[in-house]
Every structure is written in structure tokens, then in C-alpha cells.
Backbone:
């Protein structure tokens, strides 16, 4: 009762923030559109509300800019943010480790190698309208995840330490292979580096339509394991005593979080910080109960990445900065400020 | 034993880690009203047994039945509804509030897709009241003291509403006030018929005093299982723990108590100056005054005898517990000529005689006479005088006079028990 109400309150506030952020992000860009017009244009897309809006008064050019250019990118960044923050919460909970992020078991290095191979060696294969780079990145991320997972499975149990170590080791090897390709294909180096730094410059509806349902489904399924995640953080033995099927839940969550992270990284490249620090910020605000932390972090991850991407495309207009640079340069000082100000023990 | 009152039944339980056998054919039954303590040295398999019963470990041979149902056929949630564990430590990876921690105990009652219902809040509230943590329900678990944290964990286990409570050394790292508080809580839960309790306790005396039955585990097997009165004795403790202990009775409660015998002579690392193990020392007893020195000499490796002491005297208990020779006299009776002669014979065979700070009256004046004779026999006589002879002379000066004479004739006087070893 109490927990539920508290969760709903936080989620409500965050969704309001997210909507405001969507309006702001839709309005700013190289073509400036007023906030009022932006709001009306956005409202005109919503079934049920659009009857009340006089679309004839709206500028058609602005409608096209918002609906075809800005909204796909905004939604993609929100969903990647949701994915990264959700995977971050799950990995930090499973590993009982504040250093864990969505890429902790090597997803990013696998995706980077896959993307590099796709960029350098393969012509566009045009599968499901998704870019070849994305397909290869997804394949690289999944292959790495299952390899690391396979290595760490001992007698049906997954060893967390082995998982972390094999993830780090395999990441190092895969990164080395990426660099090797880069030095042989120097003329592709800029493309590869730009992909790795992460961003949404090539965002399109087709990417979003694939990503959104996958991420939404996986994130919601994972949400049903948050009580278990709370209890698992007391230690495996204690969790078993409290009726949690520790090994099974761990396996399920590892697979789900890895898939979420792989989906995100294949769409947007490697965007650091969001998945690591968003859960920490939310822990300072809402506490450590994963039942509240998980949904709020997910929405907050969407807000954070949308804000970062908006900055990334507008701060040095017309030049774009890779969003990963923004998340780190702006986000880290903000997090450090919260950390010093609150002086609360979150771990 | 496995009547309809049985709530837990373990049959031919075997468990190994790799090739190492941890539990070897363990069988026992637990009744609903039982409070059982499992005792045994480290590595005897106590924690493994608890982990098997609570289904944390699952790969075992043999059968475990809870409430008549095979543990292997139950899912983890059902098991957690019947069996709750209070572990030694709990260290959450995150900073949860006290309420959040206690609510985790309701996990077996909440389905994956459900939320906490009213009865879960009621059960958690009741558990918090029993564990006396309602006052800090909203505090952070990580900010509590060790004892308060353990109260929260106990509440977590109570929130499970299980019929069996397994205790895995729940008080071993806590101060005595918390030990007493928790034991009282467990006892009252047991007496009200709410919980069957099976516990591992670090402290043997805590276990003996409070449990209805004791299980002694040795190298993965049950050494003995029954009432403390029947199975706890010097020999059983020696063979299970390999330690020398006194098993006596608490003078107030008449409960059994076990207390270790420190034996520096057999442990080279803590041995003081080398002692002559063959030196025979006779100690004059009476009113408990001799017990400290008897214990000191015995544990230092001397061959000790004692006399003349009255039956029911503390010194006699000490002599019996340590298994040393003694001369005794009927309770509250003056020392007879016969006993005095026996005592003198001990003195003759001894190398040294020790006179502790004994009170002298007409009944035991003859002990002082025997000491005088010891001096005459040129035995080494050591007098421990902690409060002066005048205060403890109840013979109208007779004892004091003889006492002074003994000193004059060459007895060594020391001020405290610990100086005795230096004079031998």
C-alpha cells in the first residue's frame, strides 16, 4: 500500500518531467519552433486529443520537422535511456556492486566489434529496414553475452565473480580486435570512432519501431523480479531462506538485462554514464527498494538521455557532439554534487 | 519418536562436498514443542544441517520431511512458509529501511505479480513488535547497531509466520544483554507453542540452560541426542570437542553448566615456567577457600590432593569435578580422628602442603594441627594469607597461636593464590 503509493507518486512526477522535456526537446533545434506551437503539434499526434486542435493553423513545415526528424530521435533516445538505466539497476543489484553498468559483462565491446565489422566489411544487407551496422552490433553484443554467460556457468550455477572477470577479459580481447581492424582500415576510422562514441544521428522511425516493443517487453518482464532482486542483495543463502529461487532468478535477470543492454547499444553505440549513474541518483532520491528504484530509474534514464541528446545536438549548432560526451561531461559533475551534498550512504 | 507430534523428521541424511563427507547417516525427529540445540565443534556439520533443513542446500541423500511432507517435493516459497532461519550475520548490498527488511520476510506469501496485502503489513507489524523494533521502523538498516540489526533479522524471520525457527548462531557476535534478550524471546515463542526451535549456539551453557534437547554432532554424525541432563557430561564433551571441562551445577538454578579447564601444562605455547609434573601437592580445604589454588595447581600439571573437607563443601565439588584425591568428612561434622589420620597420610606422601585462606573453628582445628605436623616432617608448607589470621580465627585465639608457630617453624607465606606457583 505505502510502497505502491510512493512509487506512483514518483512515477507521476517523472512522467510529467519527461513530457515537459519532450516538448522542450521538440521545440529546439536549428529551426526554432515556439513552445506553444510545439505543444499543439505534439498534441495533434495524440489520438483523441487531436480533434480539439485546429491543425489548419499550424505550420506544415514545422509539423514535418517535428514528426519526421525530432520525434523519432527523441523517442529513440528515451527508449535507449530507459534500457540503459533498467539494465544498470539490474546489474548493480545482481552484482551487489555500485561499479556495475549495463556493459559490465562485455556487451559494449562485442557490439563495437560487430559494428566495426559491419561498417568496414559488409555492404548494406537491408534486413527489416535496419542498418547493417545495427544488426552486426546486436549480433556482437548477444554473442559476447552468451559466451561470457557460458563460461561462468558451473554446474548450472552462474558465478558472479567469474562473470565479471570473463566479461572484463573478453572485453579487452574484443576491443583489441576492434583496434586491429581500425589500424588496417584507417579511412574507416572516423566512422568507427563516431559509432563507438554513441549517438542518435541516424535515428529513424524504423529503428524505433523495432527497439521500442523489444525494450518495453523486456523491461516490464524484468520488473516482476524486483522483490527477488531486493532479497538477493542480502546474499544468496539468505535469499534462499526467504523463499527466493536464487539461481533461477539470477539467470533470468542476467539474460533479460543483457538483452536490454544489447538492444540499446546496437541502436545507439556505447553511451556511458547513463546506465551507471542514473540508478545512483535515483537511489539518493527514492531509496534502495528496487520495486521503486527500477521503474523510477527507467523513466529517469529516458529523461537523462533525452536531455543529453538535446544538448548534444544544440549546444554547438550546427555541429553535433556525440551524446556520450555530454552524458559524461554534464552528468558526472551533477552526480558528484548530489553525492557530496547528500552524504548519504547508498551502498 | 515419530508420532503424530513430529514436525520435522530427518532420515538417513547424507551430504558431501565433493569427496568430503559432511553429514553421515543423520536421523532424528523433532516434536512440535521442541527446543533443540545442536552442539559440536567447527566442521562437525551443524551449519550444513541447518542449510539442508532450510533447503539452501538441495543435493542430499536421504529424507527430510517437514509437517509430513517431503522437502524435495515442496517449492521454495512453501518451504519458507514452514521454516524460517535466523542467520549469524546479514549484510545487505543496499541501504534498506527496517520496514523494507522485515517485509522481505513476507516474500513467500506474495506472488510474483502481486503486491503486499493488508495481512502482510499486519504480520510484519506483529513481527516488529515482538522483536521490539517498531520504534525505528523507518530508520536505515545500515545505521543500526549490531544488536539492533539482529533484532530486524529476527523480525524478518518471524514475519515468515513459520512453525519452525532455525537459529544459526544468532547471538554469537552480540553482547550479553542481547544474548539474554534474544534467548528470552525464543523461549517465550517456544513456550507459547508458536515455534519449534532448532538452534546452533556458540555458547554451550546458553544451549544447555534453555533447550529441551541437545544434539551433539561429531564429524558429521550424531554423537548423542537427548536431554542435557542425560547426555552432557565431562566424557561426552571431551569426546565431541576434545576439550577438558568441568560439568557442574549452577548453585542458584541447579542447571548444568560447563566450564573449560585451562591446561597450560599440556599446551606448550602458553606454558609458564617449567613445572615438575611429578611434584605432589596437598591442599588443606574448607569453605571453598581451596578451590582456586586446587584449580591452578591441577591445570598447571601438579598432582594435587585435598583434605579434610566436608561433604557439600564447594571444595569437594571442585575436587570431584577435577577427579583428584580427597579426604572428606560428613556434612557439618567436626573432623574425626580417622579423617585426620587419612589426611596426614596424604601429607606424608606429598612434597608440599598448601594452606589456603581457610576459616578456622573447633570443627576443623585439627587441619591446622596437620599442617603443623607437615612442617615437622620438613615438607614445604606454603600459606596463602589474604586477610590475616585474626579475622578468621573462631577458636578464641587457639588457631592464631598455632598458625604463628607454623610460620615461625619455616612455612612460606604468600599474599595471593597466583604467588603459589613461584614458591613450589
Residues:
Amino acid at each position: 500500500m505505502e510502497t505502491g503509493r510512493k512509487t506512483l507518486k514518483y512515477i507521476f512526477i517523472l512522467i510529467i518531467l519527461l513530457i515537459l522535456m519532450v516538448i522542450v526537446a521538440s521545440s529546439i533545434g536549428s529551426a526554432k519552433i515556439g513552445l506553444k506551437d510545439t505543444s499543439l503539434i505534439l498534441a495533434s499526434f495524440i489520438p483523441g486529443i487531436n480533434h480539439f486542435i485546429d491543425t489548419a493553423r499550424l505550420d506544415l513545415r514545422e509539423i514535418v520537422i517535428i514528426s519526421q526528424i525530432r520525434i523519432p530521435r527523441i523517442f529513440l533516445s528515451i527508449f535507449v535511456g530507459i534500457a540503459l538505466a533498467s539494465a544498470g539497476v539490474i546489474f548493480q543489484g545482481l552484482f551487489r556492486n555500485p561499479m556495475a553498468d549495463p556493459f559490465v559483462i562485455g556487451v559494449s565491446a562485442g557490439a563495437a566489434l560487430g559494428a566495426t565489422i559491419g561498417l568496414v566489411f559488409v555492404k548494406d544487407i537491408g534486413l527489416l529496414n535496419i542498418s547493417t551496422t545495427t544488426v552486426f552490433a546486436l549480433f556482437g553484443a548477444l554473442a559476447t553475452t552468451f559466451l561470457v554467460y557460458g563460461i561462468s556457468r558451473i554446474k548450472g550455477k552462474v558465478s558472479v565473480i567469474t562473470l565479471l572477470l570473463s566479461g572484463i577479459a573478453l572485453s579487452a580481447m574484443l576491443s583489441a580486435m576492434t583496434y586491429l581492424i581500425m589500424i588496417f582500415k584507417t579511412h574507416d576510422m572516423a566512422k568507427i570512432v563516431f559509432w563507438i562514441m554513441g549517438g542518435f544521428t541516424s535515428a529513424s522511425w524504423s529503428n524505433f519501431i523495432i527497439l521500442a516493443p523489444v525494450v518495453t517487453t523486456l523491461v516490464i518482464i524484468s520488473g516482476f523480479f524486483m522483490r527477488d532482486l531486493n532479497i538477493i542483495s542480502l546474499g544468496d543463502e539468505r535469499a534462499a531462506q526467504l523463499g527466493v529461487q536464487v539461481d533461477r532468478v539470477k539467470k533470468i535477470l542476467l539474460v533479460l538485462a543483457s538483452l536490454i543492454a544489447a538492444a540499446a547499444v546496437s541502436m545507439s553505440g556505447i553511451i556511458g554514464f547513463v546506465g551507471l549513474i542514473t540508478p545512483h541518483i535515483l537511489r539518493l532520491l527514492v531509496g534502495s527498494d528496487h520495486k521503486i528504484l527500477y521503474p523510477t530509474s527507467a523513466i529517469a534514464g529516458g529523461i537523462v538521455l533525452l536531455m543529453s541528446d538535446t544538448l548534444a545536438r544544440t549546444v554547438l549548432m550546427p555541429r553535433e557532439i556525440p551524446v556520450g560526451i555530454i552524458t559524461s561531461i554534464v552528468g558526472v559533475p551533477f552526480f558528484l554534487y548530489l553525492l557530496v551534498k547528500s552524504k548519504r550512504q547508498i551502498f | 519418536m515419530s508420532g503424530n507430534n513430529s514436525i520435522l523428521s530427518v532420515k538417513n541424511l547424507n551430504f558431501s562436498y565433493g569427496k568430503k563427507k559432511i553429514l553421515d547417516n543423520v536421523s532424528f525427529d523433532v516434536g512440535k514443542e521442541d527446543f533443540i540445540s545442536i552442539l559440536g565443534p567447527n566442521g562437525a556439520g551443524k551449519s550444513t544441517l541447518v542449510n539442508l533443513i532450510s533447503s539452501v542446500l538441495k543435493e542430499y541423500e536421504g529424507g527430510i520431511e517437514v509437517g509430513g511432507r517431503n522437502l524435495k517435493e515442496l517449492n521454495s516459497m512453501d518451504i519458507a512458509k514452514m521454516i524460517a532461519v535466523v542467520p549469524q550475520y546479514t549484510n545487505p548490498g543496499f541501504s534498506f529501511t527496517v520496514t523494507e527488511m522485515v517485509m522481505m520476510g513476507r516474500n513467500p506469501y506474495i506472488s510474483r505479480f502481486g503486491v503486499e496485502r493488508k495481512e502482510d503489513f499486519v504480520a510484519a507489524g506483529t513481527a516488529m513488535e515482538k522483536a521490539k523494533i517498531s520504534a525505528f521502523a523507518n530508520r536505515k538498516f545500515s545505521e543500526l547497531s549490531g544488536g539492533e540489526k539482529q533484532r530486524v533479522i529476527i523480525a524478518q524471520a518471524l514475519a515468515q509466520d513459520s512453525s519452525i525457527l532455525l537459529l544459526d548462531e544468532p547471538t554469537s557476535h552480540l553482547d550479553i544483554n542481547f544474548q539474554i534478550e534474544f534467548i528470552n524471546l525464543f523461549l517465550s515463542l517456544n513456550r507459547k507453542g508458536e515455534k519449534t526451535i532448532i538452534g546452533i549456539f556458540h555458547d554451550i551453557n546458553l544451549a544447555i540452560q534453555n533447550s529441551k534437547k541437545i544434539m551433539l554432532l561429531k564429524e558429521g554424525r550424531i554423537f548423542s541426542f537427548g536431554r542435557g541432563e542425560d547426555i552432557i557430561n565431562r566424557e561426552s564433551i571431551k569426546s565431541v570437542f576434545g576439550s577438558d571441562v568441568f560439568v557442574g551445577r549452577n548453585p542458584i538454578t541447579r542447571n548444568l553448566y560447563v566450564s573449560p579447564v585451562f591446561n597450560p601444562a599440556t599446551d606448550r605455547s602458553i606454558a609458564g615456567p617449567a613445572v615438575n609434573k611429578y611434584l605432589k601437592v596437598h591442599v588443606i580445604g574448607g569453605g571453598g577457600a581451596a578451590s582456586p589454588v586446587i584449580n591452578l595447581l591441577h591445570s598447571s600439571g601438579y598432582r594435587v590432593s585435598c583434605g579434610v573437607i566436608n561433604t557439600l563443601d564447594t571444595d569437594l565439588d571442585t575436587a570431584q569435578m577435577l577427579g583428584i584425591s580427597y579426604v572428606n568428612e560428613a556434612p557439618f561434622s567436626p573432623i574425626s580422628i580417622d579423617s585426620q589420620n587419612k589426611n596426614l597420610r596424604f601429607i606424608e606422601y606429598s612434597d608440599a602442603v598448601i594452606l589456603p585462606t581457610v576459616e578456622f573453628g573447633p570443627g576443623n582445628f585439627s587441619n591446622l594441627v596437620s599442617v603443623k605436623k607437615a612442617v615437622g616432617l620438613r615438607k614445604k608448607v606454603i600459606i596463602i594469607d589474604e586477610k590475616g589470621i585474626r579475622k578468621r580465627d573462631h577458636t578464641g585465639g587457639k588457631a592464631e597461636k598455632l598458625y604463628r608457630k607454623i610460620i615461625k617453624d619455616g612455612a612460606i607465606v604468600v599474599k595471593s593464590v597466583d604467588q603459589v606457583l613461584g614458591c613450589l
